[in-house]
Amino acid sequence: MRFSMDPSWRRPASGDAVIAGSPVRVFRLTAAGRGIAEAIERGDEVPESGAPLTEKLLDAGAIHPLPDEHLHGIDPAEITVVIPAFVDRATVADRVAALVGGFSGTAEVIVVDDASPLPLPTPTAGDTTVRVERRPENGGPAAARNTGLALARTEWVVFVDSDVVAAFDDVAALAAWVAHPRTAAIAPRVRSIGGSSTIERYESSRSPLDAGPLPARVRSGSRVPYVPAAMLLCNVGAIRAIGGFDESMRTGEDVDLVWRLDRAGHHVRYEPAVEVGHHPRTDLSALVRQRIGYGASTTALHRKHGTAVAPLRATWANLGTWVSLIVGIPVVGLVLASITAARLVRRLDFLPDAKVEAMRLAATAQLRTGRNLAAAITRVWWPVALVIGLFSKRARITLCAAALVPSLAEWWNERPALDPLRYACLRVVDDASYGIGVIEAAWRERTPAALAPEIVSWSSSED
Questions:
Q1: How many CB atoms lie within 10 A of CB 330?
Q2: What is the pLDDT of residues 304-318, one digit of tens each?
Q3: Is the pLDDT of residue 179 over 90?
Q4: Is the pLDDT of residue 55 over 90?
Q5: Fewer CB atoms inside 10 A, N or C side of the chain?
């Protein structure tokens, strides 16, 4: 196989260690391992003897499989397309018809009508068989997808939501990236289709379905912790073996599926080299309702996956550094940061220039903790922050900084078709709406577990 290096990949002084992955890990290399690392860096094929090391690197998200030039992945003519649909407007029926028409050449297209209030005529897709299966009652996206999954007669199925813009070529491109035998699901990049309204322009740069420009091994705690099922190519046997989508969940069912596949030992991959479109929300109320719904899934996800949904995961030392700065005791923060760096120097003494590498890793971890803390404050903990802010000037400054600094930095990097003020305001509404969903679900089920951070001890990342 051939592999690409994750952007995090570093081999200091081209030596016997690799620093890479998400989260970042340190891999010590044998002489043979160094040869494999060099082959990966050159883009050469890696022999089967290198599998033990490449499997570790794949699991960590340090490398990513490339399409096999000889096997060309999965034949798209042997893939079933499943489209869950709820037709409550004539425009939805038109979108479904247009979507189905683009999948000529696949094995079969199954449209699952989830007890729509409006009729859904049977669309056509060239010579490809199209089947419309109407459910007797509305069960939500998970139930609709499971209905299609049960009817699939092929080894692979691709789920495509009715508000996605995709066609046969996108299925073929995605299928080509199924290069590793443990891959059970793979998702493309889902980008919002641009529009003229303020909301559409905001969504085009910050869609909740867009996982970004970098490929990833998808799992909780990584750079891409989940992928949406807006378009998801899946191995039928792997999904059936874990019971399919959880029909008790109206939102978050795709996150749950991905995490259960990962727990079962499968790989779920994200490949942004393949892009599809998605019709965005067009007004603020629709955006708020969607984000509240996403937030409401966290309590159910916490029941099944524990701290994987925690609003913040950090070490005691790194979190203590930021809390010390916030409450105005920078000396304590400096001491904690110094202790962390010193421990890293001792653990990484086998690296060339261990002090520089330790400082680099420590600084990266501190910045990540600060960014994640700001996200937790503005997304889930903002009601508490607001109350404290009524009595504390420092708390007000912290809340404003947590809301504005990441927003403006993101605007600077992305350069969306919006001015920074409107972008920052919409980002605040976006995050706060998600938090409302989290808090409402926690209150309804009388459990605050999904609101609590996960604080961990500092541990070695060496292999």
A1: 12
A2: 999 999 999 999 999
A3: no
A4: yes
A5: C
Nearest to 455 by CA among 253, 319, 281: 319
Cα–Cα distance for residue pair 148/138, rounded to 1 Å: 14
Beta strands per DSSP E along 104-173: 108-113, 129-134, 156-160, 164-165
Please report, for residues 28, 231, 361, 419, the alpha-carbon distance to residue 191 in angstroms, rounded to integers and kept in the order given: 38, 11, 32, 20
206-231: average pLDDT? 95
Q: What is the pLDDT of residues 231-287, one digit of tens each?
A: 999 999 999 999 999 999 999 999 999 999 999 999 999 999 999 999 998 899 999
* 441 contacts 299 by C-beta, under 8 angstroms: yes
Closest CA to 184 of 111, 242, 225: 242
β-pairing verdict for 183-192 and 231-235: antiparallel
- The C-alpha atoms of residue 164 and residue 456 are separated, in whole angstroms, by 39
CA distances from 21 to 25, 32, 219 (A): 6, 20, 12
pLDDT at 24: 92
Q: What is the pTM of this model?
A: 0.93
Per DSSP, the residues of 87-108 read --SHHHHHHHHHHHHTTTTSSE
Residues β-bridged to residue 454: 313
DSSP class of residue 12? Answer: G
Show the beta-strand stretches assigned E in 178-247. 183-192, 216-217, 231-235
Per the DSSP assignment, residues forming a β-bridge with 20 are: 25
Token pair in block for residue 112: 């699952």
Q: Do residues 76 and 171 touch, judged by C-beta distance below 8 A?
A: yes
As a whole number, the mean pLDDT across the chain is 93
Distance CA 128, CA 154 (A): 14
In the chain the first and final C-alpha atoms are separated, in Å, by 23
196 pLDDT band, cuts 50/70/90, is: confident
Paired strand residues for 278: 164, 192
Q: Is the peptide bond before 23 cis (omega within 30 degrees of 0)?
A: yes
Q: Where are the alpha helices (DSSP H) in 155-283?
A: 168-175, 198-205, 236-241, 253-263
Residues in the chain: 463
Question: Which amino acid is it at 298?
Answer: T
Q: At what angle do helices 298-305 and 420-444 cross, to 10 degrees?
A: 60
Amino acid (1-letter code) at residue 395:
A
Give percent of the chain above pLDDT 70: 98
* Whole-number Å distance between alpha carbons of 53 and 31: 12
Is the predicted pLDDT of residue 461 greater than 50, yes or no? no
* Residues 407 and 427 sit within 8 Å (Cβ to Cβ): yes
